[in-house]
Amino acid sequence: MAARILLCDDDREFCRSVSSILAAHGYFVSIAHTGAQTQACLQQHSYSLLLLDLMLPDTDGLGLLAELRQKSMIPILVTSARDAQGDRMAALELGADGYLQKPFELRELRARIDACLRRAGQPWSATASGNVLESRGVRLDVRQQRVWTNGEQTKLTPKEFELLRELLANEGQICTSQDLLWRVWGYGEAIQTRTLSVHIGRLRHHIEQDPSNPELIVTMPGVGYMFTEGKPIEPHNTN
User: Which end of the chain has a smaller Cβ tally under 10 Å, C or N?
Assistant: First the structure.
């Protein structure tokens, strides 16, 4: 089944060009020119990916991104002419799955779209069950895109889910920061960003008993992070 893509950009000529190329390669493309139209489309239909411009006539794209990420797990690829490093970092830390600066080659756009879709939906076979990773009270089901901590379901964003999946799949082994940035965000080069540390902090808040003193996801100073091996941590006694 072909992927359904929602393209949000107020440049109508850009939308026509991009949608025509993507349609020729088998994608179904819908277009929105404002933040309000984007929200309406997402409420009415299901999409595989959102291409989001940051400069919209009725709202700031970063604000819209933050709002959408609070209520939706749809992969979001930001496409913007804004070249400030701060915008790129802010978009990624707010939960964007990638940032592509205009102007760009449509070939690169297709590659980024395909990468986002693969990370959002490819099967995983790191365990004998093929789709379940489980350790120390944390259970991750790839097919269902769901996570449980000590038997209680934990809601994660798509990037938090992907990051936890990488850490669990390499339990007891150090995952370097650069490897995690490549596998989860698609960075192929060294980059200065707080994206990884911010998402690690959020993950700890979701699954650690004491996020300020983590026992599951530990920092390996100057190298990266590791999901530690050991006995499951018992839930706190709240009685």
Answer: C
